[in-house]
Amino acid sequence: MTATVFAALIGLVYVGFSYYSQAVDQRFFHPDHEIFKPSGNFGHGLGIFGSLLMLSGVFLYMARKRLKVFSRIGILKHWLEFHIFLCTLGPILIVFHTAFKFGGLVSVSFWSMVAVALSGVVGRFIYLQIPKTIEGRTMSLTEIEDYKWTITQDLKKKYAIPDEVLIQVRSSMESENSDLKSIKAMLTRLELNRKERKNVLRLFKAELSINNRIKRLKTMQKLFEFWHVVHLPFAILMIVIMLVHVGVTILFGYRWIF
Asked: Is the pLDDT of residue 54 over 80?
């Protein structure tokens, strides 16, 4: 999905660079002005598709999270990735639709869109810090403890890691100077082949990661709640003004290719 976003951005820059790089007062004389201007076929089309992508990204993700009828369709984290994809590509198309001219009421919607996108990046970071199940649901402390217990059983039964080694490694992980080199050094003393040692190290890294997230869990949950307070109003404001803009455009008789 990231590749698609970059490909779209590069393609738009390549196709319209000679027009968008012109000073605003000189664009009228550009041979492709009628195509690239916001009301032109290309510019208008970007606005339509960009708006549809953003609206789809917002409302599909909200429906998946809040409506029971959609609760069994796909994994939530995949929906989140799709939401991020649509709400990244959509604003890019909108920026090129405006031809980089921001003024009037539409500018409020544009800067709200920028605020939504930037806060989305912050929200994505916070979201990743909160432990989740494979479906993308936030894990309870009981589920986290069960997950750690499963790791311990795998280490003992699959790889025959002695209790004293487990204690040493976990003591090392809890210390402030913990690093993977010291853990690797402990594992070299065990009778494990290269593949087994790699798998054991992966399990310890997973436990270390979950331990670090538990330490930050309450802080991140509070930040996530505060993030919703910031992200949602900007999203609503953006959508309302976008719909007003579309309504005014239709009222004044602007049409696309149909």
From this structure: yes
